[in-house]
Amino acid sequence: MAVGVLALQGSFNEHIAALRRIGARGVEIRKAEQLQNVTSLIIPGGESTTMAKLAELNNLFPALREFVKMGKPVWGTCAGLIFLADRATGQKIGGQELIGGLDCTVHRNFFGSQIQSFEAELLVPEIVVKEGGPPSFRAVFIRAPAILEVGPEVEVLADVSYPSDKNVSQEPEDAEVPKKAIVAVRQRNILATAFHPELTADTRWHSYFLKMTAEVDNEASSSIIIPYGGHQSYEQPKIDLPVYQ
């Protein structure tokens, strides 16, 4: 199956390489019309303000919003999470345009600057159930955002405690800082992670995302309406899903 990877800026090559390791084909997306040729989309990590300006320059926002509204699977990592959020704080002066669709509030640079990047072991029970492997995932956080609050339809997949040696940046400054920050969620067709799975050898998140695509395809096939008295025959395409080892 062809998975689109938004290739304006950031770690799109790393996502394509990760997809290749599990037998999937990643396609670079830079123009709105290219979205018609993919079944799902990954919005990679990078510099969210720069990515937003490039997306606006290429008139991509209307097509990206329509892609999400159509129910096609979309996964945002780091900057991609910011793009998909309905609400964002901690932005630069003037803010940035968002795609939206994910009912959450995200803080843009929640964990601080580049030098405050870190790695952490996350408990990922949903990923383990679907993909197997060890009970935790070694996550890489680079100028990472975090989700401050989620809507009722959003499933929390992972959270992280604040590293004791990190200077957590949150607005407003006098706000009470929670003990844990939400860093991975799913809402129907949308998956979002504050960290960078594409920078690790563990491909379970990419495999999990492919299964989301297969689920949406199956739902679309089962919703075909056949007129009364009519007949329709079709063969469901076989999808070989990767297995985590």
Automatic annotation (TrEMBL):
CDD domains: GATase1_PB. Its EC number is 3.5.1.2. Pfam families: SNO. Keywords: Glutamine amidotransferase, Hydrolase, Lyase. Transmembrane segments: none annotated. InterPro entries: Class_I_gatase-like (IPR029062), PdxT/SNO (IPR002161), PdxT/SNO_CS (IPR021196). GO terms for cellular component: cytosol; glutaminase complex. The keyword Ubl conjugation does not apply. GO terms for molecular function: glutaminase activity; lyase activity; protein heterodimerization activity. Belongs to the glutaminase PdxT/SNO family. This is glutaminase. It comes from Daucus carota subsp. sativus.
